[in-house]
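Record format v2
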Amino acid sequence: MTSEKDGTLHSRILADLEGKILSGTWPPGHRLPFEVDLAVHYGCSRMTANKVLTQLARAGLIERRKKSGSFVAQPVAQAAVLEIHDIEAEVRSLNLSYAFDLKQQKARKASAADRQRLDLSAGATVLDLTCLHRAGTRPFCLEQRLINLDTVAEAASADFSKTAPGAWLISRVPWNAAEHRIQAFSASAEISAALEIPRNAACLVIERRTWGASGPVTFVRFTYPGDRHALVARFQPGESPAG
Amino acid sequence: MTSEKDGTLHSRILADLEGKILSGTWPPGHRLPFEVDLAVHYGCSRMTANKVLTQLARAGLIERRKKSGSFVAQPVAQAAVLEIHDIEAEVRSLNLSYAFDLKQQKARKASAADRQRLDLSAGATVLDLTCLHRAGTRPFCLEQRLINLDTVAEAASADFSKTAPGAWLISRVPWNAAEHRIQAFSASAEISAALEIPRNAACLVIERRTWGASGPVTFVRFTYPGDRHALVARFQPGESPAG
DNA sequence: CAGTGGTCTAGACCACAAG
DNA sequence: TTGTGGTCTAGACCACTGA
């Protein structure tokens, strides 16, 4: 019964079922009781039982099939939530002072490479930015960014020497879709100079493409000294990553 | 009005509200109509309106406060779902043939380093595995793994020359928690020999610690040639990553 | 065809926090 | 104090799908 008296009714039922699944009492493939039976067993209405099963299904712990019932799912893909923080917040959480230098800011016609990176049509103009984020006095991360001036025209006249482009953009284009790409590269001459690391040192590179409601917004590449930086992602079954 | 006629009632309402938020019609901080008003406006019951708002809140698009109402949230952390696939599936999705070589398999007392990696107490025994995953004939990824024999005793007598350890484990310890760590490293002598890449070439390294219901299960380090491999993560606001 | 999940309702009570 | 979200119910109809 795992009777826990805390929380709401359906969260208690949820915890009970989760325990049975995660502990292996109900192995993958096992059929759960029907909604009606759960409702009787826990003394609740069918809607409440349904809510619990729906939540378990959303979390990927069970699979529901009409006419057959609900079954404990086979664990498949290892999915994990990767939190890509704001760099300033990231630095400050290390108890280091944060600073950034704007190293370059230039508006220009989009080159072929730009258009591919930003998913643009010909003739578009972009703002090309480079800035260095510092933790304490050490270089922390090099940011190379393109901003689509067709979508975010105000960027052309913005002052990025005080406000980092990332923070500025989030206030202009609050909600957007993004695609991240994580790779390892050897430091080029430019990178090694900027980050003050040896030539060819391994670097962790995160590229992000961002789209807003009105089209492509920005492409940005963050380059971190590889041995000093790690991305961490956790996975906890049953907890919806969004929760 | 974004009126879409497909799907259920609450999914249509959801799409409508999502559109207003994502397009900026309702900017961050804007107060949404109350549940009762939404119910009236869409001609549904309050429960249905509640379901929609609850879902928006779970997705992080709105924030709900008692007595005050529901508000469009400030976009904060860039969270993305990182899918860490099974290596065999990953290779096959590239239309390449998959193979792996078991290069080492040795049971031993856990060293101090092992105990730290696997979160073990003294005196534990581990199985130390090394295997190379191939795509076509080229090395694709080197897997270095420790398995906690106190938790998964059957591993000691398992045959890993046919079944890759990852696939074997998932059938034994179906549901587990995991922590991933992603870094860039220069190839050591061992790595460069195994992956057939130059010494000090940049490598993408993914480390995973896994816990089951009965304790630490395994620690694994995947090393990929950095310039040939990328992790991709997507983020779509409004969609729950678990969905 | 029958039983399951999917959805929706109209109404209810409660806890909580803002005014 | 009062209005809001949070939760729960008993019952209903539908769509799908497996037997």
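Residues 34-36, 47, 50, 53-54, 64-70 of chain A lie near DNA strand C (CB under 10 Å from a C1').
The first strand of chain A starts at residue 62 and ends at 65.
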